[in-house]
Design a protein that fits this description.
The complex is a heterodimer. By secondary structure, chain A is an alpha+beta fold. Chain A has 12 helices and 21 strands. Chain A is globular, with a radius of gyration of 23 Å. Chain B is built from 3 helices and 6 strands; from the N terminus they run H-H-E-E-H-E-E-E-E. Classes of the chains: A alpha+beta, B alpha+beta.
């Protein structure tokens, strides 16, 4: 097989598209090759906007959370001016991490190695034994904490970009901004990340998880046992439900972002009632829906309440607005290993009973011990291991739906193709 | 009613562990009361409230039984074929006891092996046990993981 990286990349496509045959192929070594990951770190994680956290995770001045993002160690710190800042978690002196707790509150952080102390503006404001430096050595912020080249938030979702020449965040988000609006609008008083983070991993390439996160096609096979669970849960499952016919479909949102939007029988805390939640749950869901309708109009309220959205924001943010609302990021560590962090997002001020159902509902499908995600992990790991057969069997097929571009179905693969086309451009295909 | 000894409680915990190691998950589910809970809180908040926080496992009786059934099916792909699992139990302490039941703390290490990977779950487990006519039954099992995250485990595919 011709490996473009070895051939020098310039102008060479990784992917193969045959419009006439309606065939879309991705080489399996894109998932296994260290040189590909090295290049992804430069061209994708070094240039794209990457999600760091949600402003609600640092509500008070001085609140901080530490994050690994794009191969860097960062922390998000609410300034005394109220603005969320992002810094590289490294002392400008000798490099030790200055933020050593996963979360907390501090007006100043002191490096434990030599005592250099920083305030929320990043200023290096104090150090023991100040002699031995010229008077102006620390002037003009010369030894302040360093921030990523760009830090911007869209509706409380805070992103960074390591490329000073990057376009602004809203331009980058393109059509995905509207999907974030459909999430952010769910809360009358805004949205908040709830306590508790699901921290897990997969022995698989990060792009496999991106594909899997909005894959309507795999549901009926890979998640057969989840549908058994729904069938066994009183009143939830409609026997006329056909996972291959869920309305809606996949849509490319530009810049590699995509969404699949569809209807499904499970409960949605905003706002699709299921009998499991009882009469008090029914009344609360009706109240939530009425509030949405009054605030946003009937059409938009129906779209938020009745439609599920798996939102892919290139390259590594997934917001699944399904039986729960999960914000999930993942980072490659090696070509065959990724790390995942996932939280549950909810309307601020949600009724405690509904919040309890929301968290319970989240676990029925999602997360590392849900009734579905472990099977996803298994599928991805089976793929990754089987790519050892690459010398003889070298290409993945992502063609489903190419023959009906104007009539995409929820189990088509257009959202994955939009990822791969963008990935291919960034990796050098268009240059 | 005489109070139970630690040895009697250990026998019960060992029985539970043996069922899990042998993948007799349906029998395992029968050890629980109708009002039971089986919880794995997030690794960053072991003392969290299940009604407020996002847990890793938040099962009531219905979901626990379904979890047990799922793990007997070929469609639970991640556990088909079943991995090798071994529970070991240490430092068993009876924290509270009255005639109705007892609270038991134990340290448990659960090993899972599949496809050349061995994953180790280090657990601090609290059982709330009810004394019933049929013997001890589990009203609550809360497994707190002494790891920073499910890395490299990736998941809890079986039962801790």
């Amino acid at each position: 097989m011709n490996k473009p990286l070895e051939a020098g990349l310039g102008g060479t496509h990784f992917i193969r598209i045959d419009q006439q045959r309606c065939e879309f192929l991705v080489p399996r070594w894109a998932f296994t090759d260290q040189a590909v990951l090295d290049k992804e770190r430069e061209e994708i994680f070094g240039r794209c906007w990457l999600y760091v956290g949600h402003a609600s995770e640092i509500p008070q001045a001085g609140d901080f959370v530490a994050r690994k993002v794009g191969g860097r160690q960062l922390f998000l710190w609410r300034g005394e001016d109220g603005v969320p800042k992002v810094y590289f978690n490294t002392c400008t002196h000798r490099g030790a991490m200055v933020c050593r707790e996963k979360q907390g509150n501090a007006k100043r952080l002191t490096c434990p190695y030599h005592g250099w102390t920083y305030d929320t503006r990043g200023g290096m404001v104090e150090q023991p034994g100040a002699s031995g430096f010229p008077d102006d050595f620390f002037a003009n912020g010369a030894k302040n904490l360093v921030s990523p080249a760009k830090v911007e938030a869209y509706r409380d979702f805070v992103f960074v970009n390591f490329d000073p020449s990057a376009v602004d965040l809203t331009t980058y988000l393109a059509g995905a901004a509207e999907c974030l609006d459909l999430v952010a609008d769910q809360g009358q008083h805004g949205m908040e990340v709830t306590p508790g983070e699901q921290v897990y991993s997969m022995r698989a390439n990060w792009k496999l998880l991106y594909e899997n996160s909005a894959d309507g096609y795999h549901a009926i096979t890979a998640h057969a046992s989840y549908f058994d669970y729904l069938r066994a849960t009183v009143g939830v499952f409609r026997e006329d439900f056909n996972p291959h016919d869920v309305g809606g479909g996949g849509k490319s949102l530009g810049n590699g972002h995509a969404v699949i939007e569809y209807q499904a029988p499970w409960g949605r805390p905003v706002a699709q009632w299921v009998p499991q939640w009882g009469e008090s749950g029914r009344a609360e869901i009706a109240r939530v829906k009425a509030e949405l309708t009054a605030r946003l109009g009937e059409q938009r309220a129906d779209r938020i309440a009745n439609w599920n959205r798996n939102i892919l924001i290139f390259p590594n943010l997934v917001i699944n607005d399904i039986m729960g609302l999960t914000v999930r990021t993942f980072q490659p560590v090696t070509p065959g290993y990724l790390e995942v962090n996932a939280v549950s997002l909810a309307p601020r001020g949600e009724h405690p009973e509904m919040r309890a159902w929301r968290q319970y509902n989240f676990n029925e499908f999602l997360g590392p011990a849900g009734f579905a995600t472990p099977d996803d992990v298994e599928m991805l790991e089976l793929c990754q291991q089987a790519y050892q057969n690459m010398p003889e069997v070298g290409w993945n097929d992502i063609s489903k739906g190419m023959n009906r571009p104007d009539n995409n179905q929820g189990d088509d693969e257009v959202q994955m193709r939009s990822f791969w086309i963008r990935w291919d451009e960034l990796m050098g295909a268009a240059r | 009613m005489a109070l139970l000894t630690r040895a009697e409680v250990e026998d019960f915990l060992y029985h539970e562990a043996a069922l899990l190691d042998d993948w007799k998950t349906l029998e395992w589910a029968e050890l629980f009361t109708e009002d039971c809970e089986y919880l794995v809180p997030p690794t960053d908040l072991p003392d969290a409230d299940k009604n407020a926080a996002l847990f890793i496992i938040n099962d009531d009786h219905h979901r626990l039984v379904q979890r047990a059934k799922r793990l007997t099916r070929r469609t639970a792909h991640v556990e088909f074929p079943h991995s090798k699992v071994r529970h070991t139990i240490h430092n068993v302490r009876i924290l509270e006891q009255d005639e109705a039941g007892l609270t038991v703390a134990s340290n448990q290490v659960v090993y899972r092996a599949k496809r050349q990977n061995l994953d180790t779950f280090v657990c601090h487990t609290i059982h709330k046990l009810a004394r019933t006519a049929d013997g001890l039954r589990i009203r609550s099992k809360r497994v707190m993981l002494d790891i920073d995250g499910l890395r490299p485990h990736g998941m809890i595919s079986g039962i801790l």
